[in-house]
Amino acid sequence: MIIVLKPHPAPEVVEHVLERIAALGLTPHLSQGVSRTIIGVIGDEAKLQVQPLQAIPGVEQVVPILKPFKLASREFHPEDSVFTVKGVQVGGGRLAVIAGPCAIESESLLFEVAERVRRAGANLLRGGAFKPRTSPYSFQGLGQDGLKILRAAGDHFGMAVVTEVMDPRQVEVVDRYADILQVGARNMQNFDLLKECGRTRMPVLLKRGLSATVRDLLMSAEYILSEGNRQVILCERGIRTFEDSTRNTLDLSVVPNIQGQSHLPIVVDPSHATGRPDLIPAMARAAIAAGADGIHVEVHSCPEKALSDGPQALVPDQFDRLMDEIRPLAELLGRSIDVCAGEPAACAPC
Ligand code: PEP
Ligand code: MN
Fold first, then answer.
1. How many Å apart are CA 182 and CA 180, to the nearest integer?
2. How far apart are CA 11 and CA 5, in angstroms?
3. Which of 82, 129, 142, 330 is the most exposed place for a label (fewest CB within 10 A)?
C-alpha cells in the first residue's frame, strides 16, 4: 500500500500515520521529497483499511497494491480452476453448454426441451424453480415441485442440473435436488446467500449483477470461496447501459479481463445479455472466440407461451443450428465439448 500525503505535511501528520502503521505490526517506508511525502507499507495489507486511513487529515490518497480479492486471484491460484460435474468438465479447455428453459413450467415442457438440448449437444440442463421476477404478479416458479421435475429430467437424460437459489433459506432444499446452484444477477450481492452457498460443497454459477463491476463480481466470488467452497463458475449476462435496443449490454471484454485476474472459469449468457434470439448465436460464437469456458442459453419449445423470458428463448431447431456452428469453432480453437455420460433412460417420463 502506498499512502500519499498532501503537499508540505505537518510533522505531526507524518508521525501520526507512521504510528498507525507501526501499531499494526507493519513496516512503514518513508520517502520525503521537497514538497511530497509518500509512505510505503509492506506486510499484510488486509490489516490496513484504505478508508479509515483516507479519513486522516493530511492524507491525500491511499493506493492499495494488492487486489481486494485473494482466493479468487491468479496470484493465489495461478492455474485455471477446473471442476467436473457429473462427468462434465468445466474449465480447462472444455466448453460447458448450459441450456434449458428460463423456468420449469411443467414436466412435459422440461422433458421436451431437455431431450432436444441434450440431443443437440448441451451438457448441463438449466431451469428455474424459484424465479426472480420484476413484478410480484408474474409467474414466480413452481418452487420445490419444480426442483423435483428438474431432478427427474436430469436423471432421465443423464444431465447435471443447474437452478437458481434466491434466498439463504432455500439453499438446503435446492442443494438436495440440484448439481449446480445458480446465484442470479439480482442476488450477486446478497452476501448472506453467497456465504450460505459457500458453506455447501456444490459448484456455484455466479451471475454478474446488473450494474456490477468486474471487481464487484470477483468480491462476490470471494464470499463463496472464503467459506471453503472452491467451485465457483462466473457468468457474464450483460450489464445495464444506456443502450435500449438490447435487453442488456454484453460485456465480452470481461472474459479475457477476468481470466487475467482470476483462475475461475467464466461462461457467457447471451440470452439475458441480448434478450434477442436473432443476436444470441452471434454472441455465443463471439463468447467462445473470446475464450469463454462455456455458454448459457435459454431454450423453449413454444416461446410465445413461455411463462418467463419467452421473447429471448431459442426454439430447439435454432439451438440445433447454434450447436452446429459452435462445434467447428470450438475445434478450431482447440476446445472440446464434453458429452453427458450414459444414454438417456429408456422409459418415458410419467
Ligand atoms: C435466469 O437465468 O433465468 C436469470 C433470471 O438470469 P439473471 O439472473 O442473469 O437475470
Ligand atoms: Mn431467464
1. 6
2. 11
3. 82
Q: What are 78-118's pLDDT values in tens digits? A: 999 999 999 999 999 999 999 999 999 999 999 999 999 99
8 Å CB contact between 179 and 202 = yes
Show the beta-strand stretches assigned E in 199-250.
Answer: 204-207, 232-236
How is residue 259 written as a grid cell? 481470466
Q: Which tens digit of pLDDT belongs to each residue from 171-195?
A: 999 999 999 999 999 999 999 999 9
CA of 312 to the centre of ligand 2 (A): 8
Q: Is 310 in the pocket of ligand 1 (CB under 6 A)?
A: no
Task: Supply the residue whose CA is at minimum distance from atom 10 of ligand 1.
Answer: 185
- C-beta pairs of 146-150 under 8 Å, 24+ apart in sequence: 146/103, 146/104, 147/104, 147/173, 147/174, 147/176, 147/177, 147/178, 148/177, 149/104, 149/106, 149/107, 149/110, 150/104, 150/110, 150/125, 150/177, 150/178
